[in-house]
Design goal:
single chain; mainly alpha; DNA polymerase, domain 1; hpI Integrase, Chain A; 3 domains; 3-stranded antiparallel sheet; 10% strand
């Protein structure tokens, strides 16, 4: 007869444990059980856990999925993951995870497609797939997603930048806007301090983002490539030292101030992040190698660069087309 080891815990309770198919099962008793009681309780435990798992809803599974990754994901990503279930339909989020079928996923995506952009839908679908992948790794997910929309980003012109900086001169937003023209993200700018400036070099190794409690917190930069050093102009370095800080306001205030200035100047609205695209475009026009631009801007992949290059090449193509047309007209007419 097999005897199970019964452990007495410091609390006075009794515990039995058993490894079965790679998983440890534990049963706790208030009073010391007999061997028969211990065997019966342990025999029933796998079925109890299986039943509990089976009734786990998508919302509950999503919560567990996010919790298991909370300390390896950025606070911003954790916040987004926790919010996604509330943006899905109740029919989907309340459904037991083991009852969800490919048809359920496709229906949910079809509903979302009525109001959300294709990029957002792809993000939501990626999250749904990841949650199901953790709890149901055997499930084959093959969803038809909405076609991507070719987005031609507005990249500010040199004239836009000059007018905007002139209007921001002397304000607390002048330095953040100028730093964005060096390819810095808003989160990076808001995390910088005067101690990060050494001569004309800024060390970028942190970012300020919203966490799951809607509190602004400091974290590591977005990617490994984002941790970098950039060289700024002596004039900007002196301006920072003169102020004694880089930026002390609320991150959202930069965007609001830019929008107000853009209205006053009657220019197209563009976000602070678009100045990163301006940086890449301007560096490209100076024929700086792509690898150097990626490193200076802290990009891990060339996805953004390809979009910027397409924009730059389109302008160059128009110039070439005009030049070719003028040359041919001299011969033909």
């Amino acid at each position: 007869m097999i005897h199970m080891k019964i452990e007495k815990l410091p609390s006075g309770s009794y515990r039995i444990r058993k490894m079965y198919k790679g998983q440890m099962y534990t049963v706790v008793f208030n009073e010391k059980p007999t061997q028969k009681e211990a065997m019966q309780a342990m025999a029933a435990e796998p079925d109890k856990i299986k039943s509990k798992k089976y009734h786990l809803t998508f919302t509950e599974a999503a919560q567990q999925y996010t919790e298991t990754k909370e300390h390896v994901l950025s606070p911003k990503t954790v916040k987004e993951y926790l919010e996604i279930p509330s943006r899905l339909t109740d029919d989907f989020t309340n459904k037991p995870i083991y009852d969800i079928t490919q048809i359920d996923i496709q229906k949910e995506i079809n509903i979302l497609a009525k109001t959300l952009a294709p990029k957002t839908i792809r993000n939501y679908h990626g999250f749904i797939s990841s949650v199901l992948g953790m709890f149901r790794p055997e499930m084959n997910i093959s969803t038809t997603l909405p076609q991507k929309i070719k987005n031609e980003p507005y990249i500010p012109t040199d004239e836009d930048i000059k007018r905007l900086l002139q209007a921001a001169q002397g304000s607390m937003f002048e330095i953040p806007i100028k730093l964005a023209c060096y390819g810095l993200r808003r989160s990076e700018i808001c995390s910088l301090t005067i101690d990060d400036l050494n001569g004309n070099t800024l060390a970028i190794d942190s970012a300020k983002v919203l966490d799951k409690n809607n509190q602004w917190v400091e974290k590591q930069t977005k990617t490994t490539a984002s941790t970098r050093e950039i060289v700024i102009s002596p004039q900007l370095a002196d301006l920072i030292r003169e102020h004694g800080y880089i930026y002390k306001g609320h991150p959202n205030s930069i965007t609001k101030h830019m929008n107000r200035l853009q209205d006053e100047l009657n220019m197209p609205h563009f976000s602070l992040h678009k100045l990163r695209h301006y940086f890449a475009s301007y560096m490209s026009s100076l024929n700086i190698p792509e690898a150097d631009i990626l490193e200076m801007g802290g990009w891990e992949t060339d996805y953004v660069m390809k979009n910027v290059y397409r924009h730059t090449m389109k302008d160059k193509l128009k110039t070439s087309q005009d030049k070719a047309s003028n040359a041919l007209s001299k011969i033909l007419f």
